[in-house]
Design goal:
By secondary structure, this protein is mainly alpha-helical. Helix content is 61%, strand content 7%. It has seven helices and two strands. Strands 1-2 form a two-stranded antiparallel ribbon. A hairpin with an 8-residue loop joins strand 1 (75-81) and strand 2. The protein is extended, with a radius of gyration of 22 Å.
């Protein structure tokens, strides 16, 4: 971090927070955890969680309406792994941009609904508040970093990582998509097997 002459320690700390989203997340979470010292804040934490999740689902609904309104019928042709991590299971996929974006949005919606159900269970069964506070902060920040949000809400130009098809990152699967040369070699190999 570049040091600015004459900058106060407070301003330097605030600048560090604004430049690094992970530190901002930690600062917000630790600040919100101070709410848990008082049991009377329980209803406010649950209300905040409900409001944040409703806003996220509403935003996803708005994105769905935007996808339907645009109805981009440009055809995308790309290879996708049928079984994550297994490069031999690659298949060619043909989808329109609208279908691709709807599939991506549905993935985000199901993930969000699963998180809501899990947090509701943890709160109801065990009375945990910390996960609710974490989801109040981290869920919106995570969704705001997705390609679909950046295209339809932030209106970022479609360049770089926003060019479709969007790659889904699976941290549990190190497998990569095979190159076109590998796919052609695989097709030739399969054709030779069929001829024999």
């Amino acid at each position: 971090m570049e040091e600015i002459p004459g900058e106060s320690l407070l301003n330097r700390g605030l600048r560090l927070l604004s430049e690094n989203p992970m530190i901002t997340n930690l600062a917000v979470v630790f600040g919100l955890n101070q709410l848990l010292d008082d049991v009377s804040n329980f209803i406010y934490v649950v209300a905040a969680f409900t409001l944040v999740q409703a806003c996220l689902i509403g935003t996803m609904g708005y994105i769905y309406l935007q996808i339907e309104k645009n109805n981009d019928q440009t055809v995308l042709v790309y290879t996708d792994l049928a079984v994550p991590g297994d490069s031999s299971s690659a298949e060619t996929v043909r989808k329109t941009v609208a279908e691709h974006d709807n599939a991506n949005l549905m993935t985000h919606i199901t993930t969000q609904l699963f998180q809501i159900g899990l947090m509701a269970f943890l709160n109801y069964q065990f009375g945990y508040l910390r996960p609710l506070i974490l989801q109040c902060v981290l869920s919106p920040r995570q969704f705001m970093g997705t390609q679909i949000y950046r295209v339809y809400i932030s209106n970022n130009p479609i360049v770089g990582d926003l060019v479709r098809p969007w790659k889904t990152v699976n941290p549990l699967s190190p497998g990569q998509l095979p190159s076109t040369k590998e796919l052609k070699a695989k097709e030739k190999k399969e054709q030779k097997k069929k001829l024999k």
